[in-house]
Amino acid sequence: MLLVLCIDLDDDLGRKAGVETPVVGREAVESAAVALATTDPEDSDSNVLFEGLHIHDDITDEQVEVAAVTGVESGGVAANRKVGEEIDHILAGLTTGEDVHALVVTDGAQDESVIPVIRSRLPIDGVQRVVVRQAQNLESMYYTMKQVLDDPETRGTILVPLGILLLIYPLAEIAGQLGVPGAAVFGLISALLGLYVLFRGLGLERAIDEAVARARRGLYAGRVMLITTVVAAALLAIGGVRGMTTFDAHSVAAALSPVETVAAFIVGATPWFAAAGITSSVGRITDTYLAERFRWRYLNAPFYVLAIAAVLYAVSAFLLGEVGLTYMAVALTAGTLLGLASTLAFAIVESRFPSTPEPV
């Protein structure tokens, strides 16, 4: 049996013509169509009902029934749910031993959003879209534009640059009244637009959102890493300043080669960078312990940072002539032994005292 199903997703039948739905049967659907067309001749849903009647009358080689179902004025999930309930009511009232399949009649893309709901209840042979010839695809175009502008990502991509461009002229006029050069306004707006396009193109807004989300989760979860990261960032900034200060002090005494320039910066910055690395690693180790994901080998991190810092400092100081060859050799040996000793020690501890039970 074929069920010609006329869709009125925004319930014009009920709101305008006062027709109770679902409407089942040719005469009932015809009366509903006439009532709606009489109440509002411009409503396209009356065309849907008449098209359903036309299809019903044209089919003669199988049993056919026509029905009309409606949603709610607000649309969305509530409208789809109501359409599904009315289809269930229609199917329960059909007295036929044949399998029921549907031909859906709509007046545009908005009503067709309910098709998955219909398909979950009975097979669909096809969809017949009815539009007024003088307004071909007008409703579909409107619905598509509405969907595009409702999407936050698409809305930001299209409307934000357009809004910035539209602000150029009024801002230039305001700047002229205040005595500010118009070139400055154009430069500022161009910079804002360029930064926006760059952020969108590189996907940096997602990275920033994720970083903010991680920081928020860490703040509410009581993670030590959040505090140690801030402290480490401050230590890195201080290290950078100290490195530049050391470079300036050495460059005043004599001209430095490129290698000596890097060495001077490392000598001044390394102690602070090492402190930042140790602080950050201790915070991460603490968080893993509190989250019960601790491994003994994680304790290698502070020792590795200390060993690398000792090696870099010794080599850089030697290049600047501040220490002798013996000092550098001792520092290199000590840094290497420190790394090896920590690795071996924590590997032994891990094997003797596993931090998590072995799987059975």
Automatic annotation (TrEMBL):
It comes from the Archaea. Keywords: Membrane, Transmembrane, Transmembrane helix. The chain crosses the membrane at residues 178-199, 220-241, 261-282, 303-321, 327-349. The keyword Transmembrane applies. Signal peptide: none annotated. InterPro entries: DUF373. Pfam families: DUF373. PANTHER family: DUF373 FAMILY PROTEIN, HYPOTHETICAL MEMBRANE PROTEIN, CONSERVED, DUF373 FAMILY. This is DUF373 family protein. It comes from Halococcus morrhuae DSM 1307.
